[in-house]
Amino acid sequence: MTVPQPLTADFFDPACPSRALPIRGGEKWSWKIMRCLEAGPRRFSELKVPLRGITPKVLAESLRALERDGVLTRTAYDENPPRVEYELTPLGRSLFGPMDAACAWAREHLDHLLAAREAYEQSSERSDG
Prior knowledge:
This protein is mainly alpha-helical. The protein folds into 2 domains: 26-89, Arc Repressor Mutant, subunit A (Orthogonal Bundle); 95-129. It has helices spanning 30-36, 44-48, 56-68, 90-93, 96-128, and strands at residues 42-43, 72-77, 83-88. It has a 3-stranded antiparallel sheet with strand order 1-3-2. Residues 16-114 form the HTH hxlR-type domain. It comes from Kitasatospora atroaurantiaca.
């Protein structure tokens, strides 16, 4: 068996830090928000409907993070009552290809993933007991 080379401190390319990625694994709502905006601009209240379970605070934070990363724009209209719409940018739309690939992978491997999780949980319960 071949022993792999040790990992070095410069293993990851500094020009591509993971914190610069617009869609992070821990931000579970980002992809769902983007899918909601795929057909066109939406208001905050419209986004809450399909995103059952998201709190207004988390939705606002997620929208701000996506706006900060250039994935969407926020347009406030000078009306009474005030109206705000969120819309994907071309940069945001460019993420649909990678998102579709990740979703296809998940569909293809979901059974294996769930089986691995179940086996891990059963193994963990046996070793904890």
